Amino acid sequence: MAGVSGANEGHPSSAARGSGLRRSQRVCLNIDVEIILQKGKEKGFAEQTKTLIVSAHGALIVLQEPVATGDLLKLRNVRTNEEIGCRVVEVNPGNSGIPEVALEFVKPKGDFWHIAFPPTDWSPRGPESKVYGPQVVSVGTRKSKP
User: Fold this and answer.
1) Which of 58, 89, 90, 127 is the most buried (most CB within 10 A)?
2) Ranges of each domain in the chain
3) What is the DSSP code (8-state) at residue 47?
4) CATH class of the domain at 26-114
5) What are the pLDDT digits (tens) for 9-67?
6) CA–CA separation, 14 vs 104, rounded Å?
7) CA distance linking residue 13 with residue 84, whole number of Å
8) Taking the model in full, what pTM does it have?
9) Residue 78 near residue 84, CB atoms below 8 Å
């Protein structure tokens, strides 16, 4: 991702992002979350928002409260009440005027979202992703009557 530097230089995910490779598949999914920022010993803000995209390594969210690349946040999944530490890796203006914030989990937790992600070698350009509607799978051969 262009413009990501400073706090993330030398971070394992920085090389993957810079080369265009992804550590896990992304899924467009709106999940209610709460974001909590703490600065030192004082409590910062808490904001209710939704994810736009999730992955096994983080999420893309919209966030009205200003944050900067490298900020550490706590993300709480409202449905499950689970919390995880996150790092801001990118902030963009967003299409709706509300900033879109890319977060990565400080410690990866692949099952945080409680969904099954596509395999890492899956591609939306592959033939298996182009099938619409129910698929018919034959399990054996059927003998016809004479």
Assistant:
1) 58
2) 26-114
3) E
4) mainly beta
5) 334 444 444 445 455 667 888 999 999 987 666 667 899 999 999 999 999 999 999 99
6) 11
7) 17
8) 0.67
9) no
